[in-house]
Amino acid sequence: MRLVGRLETIAGARNITLSRLALAWLLHQGDDIVPIPGSGNIRYLMDNIESVNCWLDHEEIEQTDAIFCPGAVKEERYTRKGMNGVNV
Questions:
Q1: pLDDT at 10
Q2: N or C: which end of the chain has fewer CB within 10 A?
Q3: Residue by residue, what is the 3-state secondary structure of the chain?
């Protein structure tokens, strides 16, 4: 959640949602990346669509890259008990 808080700072400075920031960032990763967002709510769907019009500047892309650089999140996906449930 500490990392998400840093993303909220970037999104807040642009007055956009976290989902729009995430999708805009993904769209800046190259033509071979195609985000597939899900939404069960028309308001969120429209926000997702608007991400194609959200152009991040070089600094915003670098800040977002740095927050979730490889290895930034190192915890197990599940608790030890949960890991037993997936045979790991």
A1: 94
A2: N
A3: CHHHHHHHHHHHHHCCCHHHHHHHHHHCCCCCCCCCCCCCCHHHHHHHHHHHHCCCCHHHHHHHHHHCCCCCCCCCCCCHHHHHHCCC
CB 23 within 8 A of CB 51: yes
Determine the distance from the C-alpha atom of residue 66 to the mean position of all C-alpha atoms in its chain, rounded to a whole number.
13
Of residues 55, 44, 43, the one with CA closest to residue 14:
55
**pLDDT digit string, tens, across residues 5-59:** 999 999 999 999 999 999 999 999 888 988 888 888 898 888 888 888 899 999 9
Contact in structure between 50 and 41 (CB atoms under 8 Å): no
Residue 87 confidence (pLDDT): 67
Residue ranges covered by each domain of the chain:
2-85
Look at the alpha carbons of 71, 2, 64, 62 in this order and tell me if their dihedral is positive or negative.
negative
